[in-house]
Write a structure and sequence with these properties.
The chain has 7 helices and 12 strands. The protein is α/β, with parallel strands linked by helices and 233 residues long. Helix 1 runs parallel beside helix 2.
Length: 233
């Protein structure tokens, strides 16, 4: 059994689309869905809560915890479950049949962190290019679509809250994983459609959040730029 963690805020139509497509796949039977509502101001919370199954978990936050705080809450729930893996999907990553099998078919599914999207960092430790199959290396895999075996989570722990509400938690987590001896795999999927920036893209202070997180990340890893070149295609 897999834990599937999803963050959501303020988009009833998107919430219904995600759930429609997820529940239409047979792989939904293999998952416990942990849905965290990040202080939605519309009817998203009640809509989702009424659609979840008995085995699923609904978490309602009365404040916006951001991406990092919200996912750490999902990590807390995962710790109390007996599932083998935790997969983070963004609420705008729409699945189709075969989405879970794509992870399972990847090399070392039970030993490595897997991701659907891979990025390269530049010399200033900022993401500058999303990878394609022809790229020679990647620096990290994104948290949206990241699959973490329980054994790996036990070694690495949760996301670094010092990064703020959002941004750079994914390269930070991958670098910490590499330091802990955990391998990172990139497994792009044709079974997940990413309608990017449906939530963060609407936040008025996203540029300030990005700059603050970038500075913290750069200061933390400035002596370890070698890690940005260690990804495996």
């Amino acid at each position: 059994m897999i834990t599937l963690g999803v963050l959501h805020r303020n988009d009833e139509k998107l919430a219904n689309l995600f759930l429609d497509k997820f529940f239409a796949t047979s792989e939904a039977d293999e998952c416990i869905l942990v849905w965290l509502d990040n202080a939605s101001e519309d009817n998203s919370a009640s809509i989702v809560k009424n659609r979840l199954r008995d085995k699923d978990v609904f978490i309602l936050s009365d404040i916006n915890l951001g991406v990092i705080g919200g996912r750490n809450k999902i990590f807390d729930e995962f710790k109390n479950q007996e599932t083998s893996h935790l997969i983070f999907l963004d609420n705008d990553q729409i699945v189709s049949p075969g989405w879970l099998d794509n992870y399972k078919k990847s090399i070392n599914f039970n030993e490595c962190i897997s991701g659907l999207e891979a990025w390269q960092l530049d010399n200033n430790m900022k993401p500058f290019k999303m990878c394609t199959v022809s790229d020679k290396f990647f620096s990290y895999v994104g948290c949206g679509g990241m699959c973490i075996p329980r054994e790996c989570f036990n070694k690495i722990g949760k996301f670094d809250i010092n990064l703020g509400m959002a941004y750079f938690e994914d390269p930070d987590y991958c670098f910490r994983a590499l330091d802990a001896g955990v391998c990172i795999r990139w497994c792009p999927s044709k079974f997940v459609l990413h309608l990017a920036h449906q939530t963060l893209g609407k936040m008025h202070n996203r540029n300030a959040m990005f700059s603050k997180s970038a500075q913290y990340f750069r200061n933390k890893w400035r002596e370890r730029k070698d890690l940005a070149m260690r990804g495996i295609v």
